[in-house]
Specification:
Elements lengths: L2 E7 L3 H13 L4 E6 L5 H6 L5 E5 L2 H6 L8 H19 L3 E4 L4 E5 L4 H7 L6 E4 L1 E4 L9 H4 L2 E3 L5 H5 L4 H4 L13 E5 L21 E2 L4 E5 L5 H12 L9 H14 L3 H12 L3 H9 L3 E3 L12
Parallel strand pairs: 1-2, 1-4, 2-3, 6-10, 7-11
Antiparallel strand pairs: 4-9, 5-11, 6-9, 7-8, 8-12
Helix pairs in contact: 10-11
Length: 304
C-alpha cells in the first residue's frame, strides 16, 4: 500500500520541514506540496527529497491548470488537489489525504497504514475528525512540538452547555475555533471526481464513509498571536480570500472591529478566543473534552 498527502501552503521554513518530516516518519510515502509563494526557500531544500514533489505556484502553473493566483484559496486548493489526484493514479498510489500545513495526521497507538489496510474494500474514504491544539502562550516557535493539549469536537448542544467555565471556553457558542469538518483519506479509484476540502465527491456513485477511533487530525489553528494576526490580516486586506461557517465569519467580524484599536485590544481578543488557563484545561481533561497528545521530537527530524 502506498499513501500520499496533498497540501497548498505558505508557511515558515522550519514549520514546513517539521510538517514534511513528521509525515514521512509516520508512514506517508509521498507529499505533494504546492507552494503559494513560488520563491519559497523550502522548494530548493526539498527538491532532492524522493518523498516530496515540491511545486512552485507560478502564474504559469495557475494558467496551465485553469486558475489564477488571485482566485479564492479554496479554488486554488481544488486545482492543486485535482492535479495531485491524477499523478497518484499514474504512480499507483492507493490513498491520498488533502490537508493543510497546520494539520498533522495522527494515529493513536497504531499507524495510519494499519488503519487503512483494515478497512473493507467497500469503504471509499476515512474521515478524520479534528482535534484542535490549545495555544498556551502568545508566541510559539514550533507548535507541533510545543502544544500538547487538544480540544475534541463536540456537536451535541447539551454537552456544550454542560461544559465547565462555558463562558470562557466557548466562543459564540462553539468549542473549536477552526473547522469542524475534519479531513479525509480517500481511496483512489476512477469514480473519485474531486478531493475537496473535507470529503471527496463522485459524479457517478454515492461514496461510503468510515471513521476509526484512532485516526485523528491534529489542527494547530492560529497557534500563536502572530500566526492569528497574519492569517486574519491577509483576509482583511484581500491578499487571502475567506469564506466559512457562521462562527468563523463572526470571528472575522470581531477581528475587523478591533483592528482599528490599539495592539493591546487585538492581543486581548486573541487571548479571549484561544488561550485557556492551566486550571481550566485540567478540568476539561477530567471531563474528557481535552486530550493530551505528546508527539516524540524525533518524528520531526529529517528521516535517515
Amino acid at each position: 500500500m502506498k499513501i500520499a498527502t496533498v497540501t497548498t501552503l505558505k508557511a515558515s521554513l522550519s514549520n514546513t520541514l517539521s510538517f514534511v518530516h513528521y509525515h514521512l516518519n509516520t508512514g506517508i510515502d509521498h507529499l505533494y506540496l504546492f507552494f503559494d509563494d513560488p520563491n519559497d526557500k523550502a522548494i530548493s531544500v526539498l527538491e532532492n527529497n524522493p518523498g516530496v514533489t515540491a511545486i512552485p505556484c507560478t502564474e504559469t502553473h495557475w494558467q496551465n491548470n485553469g486558475c489564477s493566483s488571485k482566485s479564492d484559496i479554496e479554488i486554488r486548493q481544488a486545482c492543486n488537489s485535482k492535479l495531485a489526484l491524477s499523478w497518484c493514479r499514474d504512480e499507483g498510489i492507493d490513498w491520498i489525504a488533502h490537508i493543510d500545513s497546520d494539520e498533522l495526521i495522527y494515529a493513536h497507538n497504531t499507524t495510519i497504514k494499519t488503519i487503512l489496510a483494515s478497512l473493507d474494500d467497500s469503504i471509499d474514504y476515512l474521515l478524520m475528525p479534528p482535534f484542535e491544539a490549545i495555544p498556551n502562550k502568545m508566541e510559539c516557535v514550533n507548535p507541533f512540538i510545543e502544544l500538547k493539549q487538544f480540544k475534541i469536537l463536540i456537536r451535541d448542544e447539551e454537552s456544550l452547555q454542560s461544559l465547565p467555565y462555558k463562558e470562557r471556553v466557548l466562543y459564540r457558542g462553539e468549542f473549536l475555533r477552526g473547522h469542524l469538518g475534519g479531513k479525509s483519506f480517500t481511496r483512489i479509484h476512477n469514480n473519485i471526481s474531486h478531493l475537496n476540502i473535507h470529503r471527496p465527491t463522485s459524479e457517478s456513485i454515492n461514496l461510503v464513509e468510515e471513521r476509526h477511533e484512532a485516526a485523528l487530525l491534529l489542527h494547530y489553528d492560529c497557534y500563536d498571536y502572530h500566526n492569528w494576526l497574519t492569517k486574519w490580516t491577509r483576509r482583511y486586506d484581500g491578499t487571502a480570500s475567506f469564506s466559512g461557517r457562521e462562527n468563523r465569519n463572526n470571528q472575522f467580524d470581531d477581528f475587523c472591529s478591533t483592528l482599528e484599536d490599539k495592539d493591546e485590544a487585538l492581543r486581548d481578543l486573541y487571548k479571549t478566543m484561544y488561550l485557556l488557563p492551566p486550571d481550566i484545561v485540567k478540568e476539561l481533561k477530567q471531563c474528557n473534552v481535552v486530550r493530551e497528545i505528546n508527539l516524540d521530537k524525533p518524528l520531526f527530524d529529517k528521516p535517515q
